[in-house]
Amino acid sequence: MTQATFAERISHWQRDHGRHHLPWQVSDPYRIWLSEVMLQQTQVSTVLDYFPRFIARFPDVASLAAAPLDDVLALWSGLGYYSRARNLHHSAQQVVNDYAGTFPRERVALESLKGVGRSTAAAIAVFAFGAREAILDGNVKRILTRHEGIEGVSSNAATLKQLWASAEARLPADDALLKPYTQGLMDLGSLVCTRSRPDCAVCPVRSDCYAYLNDCTETLPSKKPRKALPKKHTVMLLAHSKRGIHLNRRPDHGIWRNLWSFPEFADLDTAHTFARSLGKTDQQKTLTPFTHRFTHYQLHIQPLVVRINAPNTEQNWLPVEYALAKGLPKPIRQLIEETFPND
Questions:
Q1: How far is CA 61 from CA 89, 94, 97, 171, 204, in A?
Q2: pLDDT at 3
Q3: Beta 264-265 vs 244-246: how paired, if at all?
């Protein structure tokens, strides 16, 4: 008896064991695009929390395009990789201005949207329009690497070329299987062929999987050598007064672009000097320092809380409730919630 193809086995597995009730499993290209951008470098469980709130506030691409960037960043706050939110806002305006509010159907045209790469564009084209396109996100790279026994770090050009060729060659012959196959790849990588301790016993393609047959699922994909992350240090001034807390909007470059944050200083003395420039200081204390990890470095943060008894300016003082409605980096939001819970 001839064994079903790779695509057929994954499609059938998805039908019986995959996910079918995610809120973005619809034909609406706007919701599909939004979910695909949110799912970049983010777990499904996290996106399930953000997606409904985003849709409630921006139910269609026109409402997202017309919204102030600050509102978009506020809803994105805590989801991380904030360039995705800025790109999302920019892309919504592209769709409205360049495509009359209708998402293009072709992958190449979808790639013209800011923040949409080849794999994301392919996923949108498949799920929204039934296009014959291959995806290659992190989950799919892991599945193909293990199944085919592809060595080499996936970010290397030669390895990536091999992976794309494999992804395209494995597309199902029957176009009716394109959607379940594509979703099945995502589900299989997320639920079964996981980064560590994959559940090979329930995998529908284990019978001809190179990594399973050769007992090397833990060594494939090849891991990029990890470099020690450099450390940077900063003092954050948590100034508060009867007018609220003192926040600055960050510039349109560097980390946390356009988000709201506490002023930062090289040392405690400089932070104290700035605090006194805001008005008469009353109470002050240092909080336990903590470290926030970015992709390329670690930021060691020393929070300094200072009470300003008589602020000499009205600028940049925000009531806590109003501040929490702004676009805030996750550690800043946590600092506000933990330091000023009753304000």
A1: 9, 10, 11, 30, 38
A2: 81
A3: unpaired
Angle at CA 46, nearest 5°, toward 43 and 49?
Answer: 150
Mapping DSSP to helix (H, G, I), strand (E, B) and coil, where does residue 74 land? Answer: helix
Rounded CA separation 233/264 (Å): 10
Amino acid found at 61: V
The helix (run of H) or strand (run of E) holding residue 85 is: helix 83-98
Query: Residues 36, 106, 111, 338: which is the catalytic one?
Result: 36
3-class secondary structure, 110: helix
Q: Name residue 261's beta-bridge partners.
A: 248
At 269, give phi and psi (nearest 5°): -60, -45
Q: At 338, list the tokens.
A: 């933990």
Inform me whether the pLDDT recorded for 1 exceeds 60.
no
Q: Give me the pLDDT at residue 238, please.
A: 98
Q: What is the pLDDT of residues 212-250, one digit of tens each?
A: 999 999 999 998 888 888 999 999 999 999 999 999 999
Task: Decide if 234 contacts 300 (C-beta within 8 A).
Answer: yes
Question: Can you list the domains of the chain with their CATH numbers?
Answer: 6-213 (1.10.340.30), 231-339 (3.90.79.10)
Give catalytic status of residue 36 as yes or no.
yes
Residue with tokens 């000023």: 340
Question: What 8-state DSSP symbol labels residue 319?
Answer: -
What six digits make up the tokens of 77?
């706050």
